[in-house]
Structure formats: C-alpha cells, structure tokens
Amino acid sequence: MTSLADGDWHRLHPASPLLRGGIFVFALLGFVIANLRERFVDLVFGIPRESGDPLDAIYEGGAVGWALLIVAGVLLVIIVAFSLSWRMHTFRVTDESVEVRSGILFRSHRQARLDRIQGVNIVRPLIPRLFGAAKLEVSVAGQDANVQLAYLGSALADGLRRDILRLASGARQPRAAVPGPIDPGQLLPAPETDPPGVGQPGDLVAPAGNRRHALNDYASARVGEFLAPELDPDAAPPESVVRIPVLRLIGSIVFSGFTVFVLVGIGAIITSVIVGGSEWLLIAIFPGLIASVGYYVSRFTKSLRYSIAGTPDGVRVGFGLLTTSNETLPPGRIHAIGVTQPLAWRPFGWWQISINKAGHSTNDGAAGQAATTVLPVGSLTDVGKVLELILPGFAIDEQRALVIRGLTSRGGNDGFANAPRRAAWLRPFSWRRTGYTVTAGAALLRRGVLSRELVLVPLARLQSVGIDQGPVRRRLRLASARLHTVTGPVSASLGVIDVDEAVRMFEAISAGAVASADSDTSHHWSLVPAVTATVAPAPGSTAAPAAATEVTS
Amino acid sequence: MAEQSVPDNLGNDAAAPLVPDPEHGYGPAATADPVTDVPPVGARLDLPEAGEWKRVSPKYVMVEIVGTVVFLVIVCAAAGALWLLLDQTWAAWVGAAIALVTLISLAFEPRRVRSIGYQLRADDLLFRRGIMYQRFVSVPYGRMQLVDITRGPVARVLGLADLKFVTAAASSGVAIPGLAEADADALRDRLVELAESRRAGL
Question: Taking every annotated instance into account, which residue ranges of this chain make up the domain YdbS-like PH (chain B) (predicted)?
Fold first, then answer.
C-alpha cells in the first residue's frame, strides 16, 4: 500500500505549478521566439540578420545590467510564487474523506466525503504525461464540487485511486489480490511521500556519483510508462474487457450525423463552382470544411485505445492515444443507461451507450464527447458485456433476452407492455415499439424505430416517477410517463402509453423504487450486505449530508 | 411508525417481468382503422387506488389572482403605451387578445387550485396538479435532498407558504404551493423525519 492515503498531509508533484501553468509557459516561449527568431536563424543556419531585435536595442542602449536585473527579478518572483503555491497546496486522504488545502492569499479547504464519491478520474495530458505526471480528480455530486489533485506522479496517482476506492468501498484492509506489482523504477520521483515540511525540491537531486545512473533510470521509466498499454493487464479480468477495433471506430465516425453536414457543405461548394459567380459561398464554407477534418482527427485520436473493463471497485473506462484518461465508476453510481442506434449504424449493427451520473468530471470523455459516453461504438455482444459491467446482476439469460428484444424487436408480444394502436396518431412509426417493462430491479423503456433506443433505469437510483396527460392524449386515452433521474444525456420518458397501463406503471415503479433502495448496498460495495443493513443513518442532520464542503477564507 | 405496516405488494415481485395487458396494444393486426377504438369521450388520468388527497388552502386562489392581475396591468400598460404614444394600432389588438385569454383562464383558477393535491403514503410522497394538463408524481422519501419553504409577499399577507421537495433530479418538480404556514412547517418536519428513516444515498 502506498502511504499517500495514510491520513497525513501530502504535497503534489513538485513540477505541478509549472505543468498547471503550461499554457502560460508556452505563451512566454512563443513570445521570446517570435521576437528573437532571426537571431536563432543566424545561430543555427548562419544566415546573417538584416534588422535588429530587442536584444540589439538593449545592447546598444547600454541597458544590459538593467535588463539582466529585470529578468532575474521576474524569474525570482515566478520561482517564489511557484514554490509557495506548491508548499501551500496539500491534500490528505482519511477514512472519511479526501481533503485539499490550497491558495496563498485566499486559502481554500475542500473536503469530499468518501461514501459520496461518484467516480475517480485520472487524466494524463500529453506534456505532463511525458514527465510522468497525472491529474487525479475525485468527482462528487453537485456543480463544481470535484476535488482535483494536479499533478501527482503517474504510479502514485494509480495507487492513490486504488486506496481511495478501497477506503470508500468499506473494506478496511488492503485486498488480498492487489492488482499490478508496482515497478520499482516508477516509484523514483516520489517526493509526496515525504512528511510535510521536510520534502524540499532539492531532495530530488541524487548524489553526484549516481546522478547519471539516476537520470538513465528516470528516462527509461518515463519511456516505459509512455509505451505501456493503456489498461494495466492485471487490473481487470481480460474476458470482461471491451475494446473498439480501429476500422469500426473510423466507420462510426464517418457514418455520423456530422458527415451529413459535411456532405451538404461539399455539395454546396460544388454547385457554387459549377453555377459560378458566388465566391462568397466558397469563402464561407471552405474554412468550415478544413476545420471538420480537424474534428474527425481529434475524435479519432481521442477514442483510440478505448477500453472498458470491470475491476473490483467498479467500471474502468479508459481511452486516448497522446492524452490519456481513465475513469473508475464505483458500483451503483449510474443513474440511467441509454443504448442507441442511429439509422446509419443499423447496417453494421453498431450501438452506442451513454449514461447519466451525478458527478461530472471536468475533462472530456472519449471522442471529445461528454464523459457520459461509456461505449462510443460497439456490437450487440459488446453492448451485452458493457451492460453486465455497469448493471451488475443483469446477466441472467432472461434479462439478456429481454435487452436484445428491447433493442431489436419491432414490437409485439415480447415481454414489453407496448403502446396501443391508437398511439399511431402521435407516433406513426414507432408506436409498436414504444413500451416498457420492469425486471430485476431495473425499468426498461424502449422507443424509436428509425433511431432505436432502449433506456435502462436502475430503480435503486430512481429519484421520482411522473405521469402526464394533456388534452390530445386524453382524447386518445393515452398518457405520457417519465422517470426522473439526475441530469444527463439519457432521458427516460415514454411519449405514449395507454392510460390504464400508465397508472399500473406508476404504481409498480414507485413501489419498486422504494423496495430497491431498501436493499441497495452499493454505497459501501465491499461490505457484506448483512452489516450494511444495520448501518443506521446519521441522526441529527435535517437534510442529506453534503457530499463536499469548501471553506474559503 | 404505523404507516410502515402497510404491505407493499408491488415491490416484492419486481423481479418478474410485467406481463402486458392483452386487451390493448397489439391485438390481431386485422383490426380496421386505427381510430375505431377511440371512444367519443377520452379517459382522464386518475389513480383509482390512491387514498384521500390533501388539498392546498383555498386562499391560494387569491395569490394566483393577484399575480395574474399584476401581469394584466403590465400587459395593458405596455400595449396602451405602444398604441397611444407610438400610434401602433396592432399593439392594442395583441394586448386585448392576451387580456382576454388571461381573464378566461382566471375563471378556471379556483378549479386549478382545487386540483393541486398531495398525500403522504407509506414510503413516498404523492403529488398531483392540473386539470387540462394533468401531472402525477411519486417521490420516495429517501430521495429527498432538501425541503425548501418560500413565502411571496401576497402569500405572506394571507399566511401561506410554498413548499418545495427537492431531489437530485431537476425534473421531479414537486412544489406544493399555498399551504398554511403552520401546515408547511409541520409538513417539512414530517418529511425530514420520514427521509431520515429511509435515507438512501444518491
């Protein structure tokens, strides 16, 4: 077990301020290079300069001393500010919560309760990744309530996540099978393990004789990390892992709604060239087309090396070629699941899965979409595997058959309570397929015939259920129903349903929501259920305890 | 807590898939025109098995009427200004049309207020509202995040308060307006107490 989760205060990676201020550093570099480019050209290629640059001006003005003084002063201020901000930025992980203190003038203290964790995300942007650093983000429910640790040593971040999730799961002892032996080389840049007040940046420097050796080790550890597979092979049983073949990924991006857009644009350009005389159209659309190429490329690279796998502490979704990101969602943190198939994907049998969850990482998900897409594209088999991962207990054959029917059936007597024929007035194509069923603690809503959709809502996570009726539906003896879940891309609603069936559904689902919540133990997923049942709610507080608190002074 | 003895006969068989009612839905495909099975009068949404609905105070009609009148005055003033000062004749017609529709809907206000109801069942709060556009919502107590009580200026004069039951879902929208202040406070305490005993995570 790493010592980061031992309840003491620790510091972040010493290079954190530099990595966090990355854009600023690049802007400064860009400014310097832009002003001195002729000097560089002269230096490298020996082409003589024609005009003076700021350095010449300083030299001729006799202000060399002043300039050096100013540069030194600015450097000093930057170094002092960075080291102060690094010293003041500390975090600790206790049995109860994750806490972060930061700020120099305006101190802030943020605390996230472990039992309210909605997910733990580790992001490695390209440049921090080159330096072996990673950003760890603990998401809890609420706007801007996340606790972010940027940056940590790469291996330390993985270890810390494992510890946070283990503490949150209710297991007090390290698991017998801690996945993945840690490469000793990766533990080298570990100043965070120093007790506070002791860890100085200078401690990092190895004794002079070993320096070359240490540097070699450091470099090879970095390269090893960079080339390592995105998903640690020991972290999850291989049969549970779902990946996306590259060809399917390209296909899914090409056959998307955006392509229709691009095709319309190309068509417009061709017609304007043939008809002639309207150059403005060319000017208006062409930059957009060039930008769309960038969009395709970024969607592609961001979904490369995608994997979703089941670990003991929840589902792990990882992706990315250069900037990598992987998030672990503990069990029971998923509020609604939507499986959709756009019309263009139907010949290939591809599906997409997105979810509603209470905590939102500030980082984008695969394909640059919101982090709510857990499977950007997958076959029916993949859908089955992913559903099994994110809805444990949903793997029985009966449910599997029900899901398949929910996805592909055209309607009829197939286990779903469908809309009556008169619903054709409101849903001329899809009324046969519009229906619902309740099974194994989850409600399944099916709808859409051109763009097929199946929504699964775990009843233990359901917030409330409502049925509505307006004048038109009253005339048709219909109603509409809606399962209220936390905000997200999945909307669990049925546009048409028979009025009596709606009442039956209302009663069944509201009773089911209460029953499933009573038997739900996912907030402490490692405890044995018998123990969890006796855990009494904390008395005294009038509202649900806050997931995160922040004090700014 | 006597209410907990009410058996929930629905939650226990949640594992069994619901069997669709054969009477409607997908009868033999040979049936004629889709419209033939629509009766002359439609069917209202209603919960036949629900118990007694608690209604909000009839005085709440006054709050709604005052709000509507203020709205009317603003609309009339804007329309009148456009008409008389800027000589825009259409503004008068639009203003008159809005005023007419608002006045007609005002006539239904007492019925609309009577349609608002709630009841505390064994495990969930049931809420209904609307006559033309009906809405029924059931919220299990354990899903409560907080209870919000607000008092507008008119409601305060009449001794009324609005109670809002907030869950993690923005779309739940359970807001019970026009409760007597004492009732609102008592209901809030009762709801908090019920939520405490049935606490669920998120």
Answer: 114-191
User: Who among B12, B26, B38 is closest to A413 (CB)?
Assistant: B26
Task: Show the domain range for A7.
Answer: 3-173+182-193+209-228
Q: CATH number of the domain at B131, please.
A: 2.30.29
Q: Which of B20, B27, B143 sits opposite A416 (nearest CB)?
A: B20
Q: Is residue B23 part of a domain?
A: no
Q: Give the number of domains in chain A.
A: 3
Within 8 A by CB and 6+ apart from B113, the residues are B56, B58, B60, B61, B64, B178
**Domain count across chain B:** 2
Min distance A175 CA to chain B CA atoms (Å)? 25
A100 CA: distance to closest CA in chain B (Å): 23
Q: Is residue A487 part of a domain?
A: yes
Within a domain: A532: no
This complex has an ipTM of 0.76
Q: Residue B173 is part of which domain span?
A: 117-202
Question: How many Cα neighbours within 13 Å face the side chain of B135?
Answer: 18
| Structural domain contains residue B94 | yes
For B79, residues 6+ apart whose C-beta sits below 8 A from its C-beta are B91, B92, B94, B95, B96, B98
Report the alpha-carbon distance of residue A441 to residue B74 in Å, rounded: 52
φ/ψ (deg, to 5) at A74? -60, -45
Q: Which residues of chain B are under the pLDDT cut of 70?
A: 1-42, 200-202
d(CA A494, CA A509): 14
The predicted-structure confidence for A191-241, as pLDDT tens digits, reads as follows: 333 333 333 333 344 455 567 777 787 778 777 777 777 666 666 777 778
Q: Do A133 and A153 contact (CB within 8 A), yes or no?
A: yes
Q: Are residues B172 and B121 in the same domain?
A: yes
User: Is there a single domain that holds both residue A442 and residue A512?
Assistant: yes
Mark whether A335 and A278 lie in a shared domain.
Answer: no
